[in-house]
């Protein structure tokens, strides 16, 4: 594989970053020979700019779309690889599964695809657009600039029954999460680092409100002792004050929800992880030590995020003659 890079960083900083991730690049190069950091350099040189511009434009009217785009890549890559299958509409598809009912950002992917089909018809895959859009969402909120290898092709199969066995539920133990990540070729460090995605985005009350309750006398009762009492009370107040708690959303990060930073890990140390799966990372020696490192060093978090994000973005990719290049991201050709 031939790698090519472009960056606005100072040359010395860029070279340092390249040396840091060289082992990862060699791994990708040996396993995914049809992926390249400049795959569309000749066939559609403006592809990444078009995706980035579409993401930025969408976020000016709805900032929450950035968190939705980042979540979307997890639900795509973890189910049957990064093949854009979560984007396909229809009965019985991944997108129709109740586990994916709260996903969003589809319109941004489709908007980028529509422009690309005018400029470079039949060239850029929806799978690549999805990965690039997630990358750009992180960058738009102050996160690291990540060079992404492209050349993925779109899958043609999307089955709802594949969703539940492959995605992380909010009540999973650390062991269950490690098992899921391991099945995708991802490590314990990748689990903790990629959980840092919860530094942005929001969640519906029904995904975490089992951690506290109101007893028959109307008193607040903390069910999950790993959750800070005052934080739990704040969450309860917000969720119970809504006419429809299932429609109410709460920021994943109560401190800096509009910035991609390492605040998430400091929240975990303060017992303010929104989900049970967040709090669980502080209760296991294998994950707590990594949380502590990332909470104290944002640069380390950004470096490790870059590595883990790239690893996730190449899970089960279709390349070469596999799959297709969809004309619409919502339907197979």
Automatic annotation (TrEMBL):
Mind telling me which residues the site (Transition state stabilizer) is annotated on? Answer: 71
Is this entry keyworded Heme? yes
The first-level EC class reads oxidoreductase
Q: Does the keyword Membrane apply?
A: no
Its cofactor is:
Ca(2+); heme b
Q: Where along the chain is Ca(2+) 2 bound?
A: 199, 253, 256, 261
* Cofactor, free-text remark: Binds 2 calcium ions per subunit. Binds 1 heme b (iron(II)-protoporphyrin IX) group per subunit.
What catalytic activity does the UniProt entry give for this protein?
Answer: 2 a phenolic donor + H2O2 = 2 a phenolic radical donor + 2 H2O
Q: MF terms per GO, please? A: heme binding; lactoperoxidase activity; metal ion binding
In the record, biological process GO terms are:
hydrogen peroxide catabolic process; response to oxidative stress
What's the stated role of this polypeptide? Removal of H(2)O(2), oxidation of toxic reductants, biosynthesis and degradation of lignin, suberization, auxin catabolism, response to environmental stresses such as wounding, pathogen attack and oxidative stress. These functions might be dependent on each isozyme/isoform in each plant tissue.
Family per record: Belongs to the peroxidase family. Ascorbate peroxidase subfamily. Belongs to the peroxidase family. Classical plant (class III) peroxidase subfamily.
Name of this chain's protein: Peroxidase
The species is: Thlaspi arvense
